[in-house]
Amino acid sequence: MPKTTTQKKTATKPNTASNNGSKKHTTKAEINAEKGLTEEVDAKQAKAEFEKRQKSQLAAVKKLDKELLHKMLYMMVLGRVFEQKCAEVYRIGKIGGFCHLYIGQEAISIGTQMALKEGDYVITSYRDHVQAMVAGITPEAVMAELYGKSGGNVKGKGGSMHMFSKEKGFFGGHGIVGGQIGVGTGMAYAQKYKGTDNVTLCFFGEAAVNQGIFHESLNMAQLWKLPVIFICENNKYGMGTSQTRAMSISSIAKKAEGYGMAGEFVDGMDVLAVREATERAIERARKDSLPTLLEIRAYRYMGHSMSDPGKYRTTDEIKKFQERDPIVLFKETLKKAKIFTDKDFEEIESQAKEATQKAVDFAENSPFPDKSELFTDIYA
Ligand SMILES: Cc1ncc(C[n+]2csc(CCOP(=O)(O)OP(=O)(O)O)c2C)c(N)n1
Ligand SMILES: [Mg+2]
After folding, report:
1. With a 6 A CB cut-off, is 175 part of the ligand 1 pocket?
2. Minimal-distance CA residue to ligand 1 atom 8
3. In terms of CB atoms within 10 Å, which end of the chain has fewer, N or C?
4. Cα of 240 from ligand 1 centre, angstroms
5. Under a CB-based contact definition with an 8 Å cutoff, are residues 10 and 284 in contact?
6. Contact (Cβ atoms closer than 8 angstroms) between residue 236 and residue 206
7. What's the confidence (pLDDT) of residue 216?
8. What's the pLDDT score for residue 104?
9. Using one digit for the tens of pLDDT, what is the confidence trace for 200-243?
């Protein structure tokens, strides 16, 4: 495991349990490493990063209009409140099957998708509730889908991992790690073939980068000059496995070089940095029909899915990322820039809560799919 600058006292190595055991570990960091847990982190450094980000955000907000900033903040808050409600109703048995939450990663979806225009496409993994709402699927339709009810966006047949809407250009919701990378590349091929100037955003986690489909797709996209933006949401973990234990190099953005493609690293806790990087990639795709790989680093606060006991990381690590929470950071910037006040934030929060409650009520009252639906929408 590469040493991080956040480690103050000691350097920890991965899997020290496999050492011969002769060394006696004394610091908390060493003991955690011994147990296979991730490294210790420094909250002070997180705070310093927060302040640095705030400076760049203060410059960036000046370039965007108030209405858009309001919408971006509202969608981030809605994403957070909606997902917290998902966890709550999941625990009381309202949602069945898998449920992967996006809490902590909101700036990625909002920063990227809100830079799109009509006719652009989005495709993603199973961590898809927020992306579906940002694409324009209503909170009611997403919640009802989670409940497996007929009012869901795919009539209750897909559930948490398979949100989909052709009209909104949202092509899933995919459960096979990396599977959507090939499909997304094909969607961009179709956009080019039809002579449009539209683009495709193709999201996937950092663990998907180790799949062959990632490399085949990047090669093809650059070779055929396809208007696709590959967005790696690097949240540090693939289920319980840290990236440092599974990937030989730490920079995913650098992998673009292997295909002669533009690649960029972005701080995913900063919604405005995400938007700016996406705008650069979109321009490259629309004007020159060229792909880009964006590695956007963020952090998931919750477990991999609702059934994750989370024994592979420390609470200190989670806290470090929460210190620079993307919503708190954005709000503080907007307040400092005198664009919004605490009262505006309260209003946004209560609108998001209201929309979420409305979604729950809708899902509760929506009927389960009729038995006759068992034989519709079947392809094989
Ligand atoms: C081909 C395949 N292999 C394994 C799995 C089991 N699996 C589900 S999610 C996951 C981890 C993926 O992590 P990452 O791509 O980083 O996305 P994240 O969950 O962090 O958003 C694994 C291994 C799967 N669904 N598909
Ligand atoms: Mg991951």
Report:
1. yes
2. 177
3. C
4. 10
5. no
6. yes
7. 98
8. 98
9. 999 999 999 999 999 999 999 999 999 999 999 999 999 999 99
pTM value > 0.70: yes
Beta pairing partners, 170: 122, 165
**Alpha-carbon distances of 139 from 131, 143, 345, 358, rounded to whole Å:** 11, 6, 20, 8
Regarding the beta carbon of 369 and ligand 1, being less than 6 Å apart is answered no
Between the CA of 203 and the centroid of ligand 1 the distance, in Å, is 13
Residue 206 Cβ contacting ligand 1 at under 6 Å: yes
Rounded to a whole number of angstroms, the distance between the first and last alpha carbons of the chain is: 46
Measured in Å, residue 303 CA sits from the centre of ligand 1 at 13
Q: What is the 3-state secondary structure (H, E, C) of the chain?
A: CCCCCCCCCCCCCCCHHHCCCCCCCCCHHHHHHHCCCCCCCCHHHHHHHHHHHHHHHHHHHCCCCHHHHHHHHHHHHHHHHHHHHHHHHHHCCCCCCCCCCCCCCHHHHHHHHCCCCCCCEEECCCCCHHHHHHCCCCHHHHHHHHCCCCCCCCCCCCCCCCCCECCCCECCCCCCCCHHHHHHHHHHHHHHHCCCCCCEEEEEEHHHHHCHHHHHHHHHHHHCCCCEEEEEEECCEECCEEHHHHCCCCCCHHHHHHHCCEEEEEECCCHHHHHHHHHHHHHHHHHHCCCEEEEEECCCCCCCCCCCCCCCCCHHHHHHHHCCCHHHHHHHHHHHCCCCCHHHHHHHHHHHHHHHHHHHHHHHHCCCCCHHHHHCCCCC
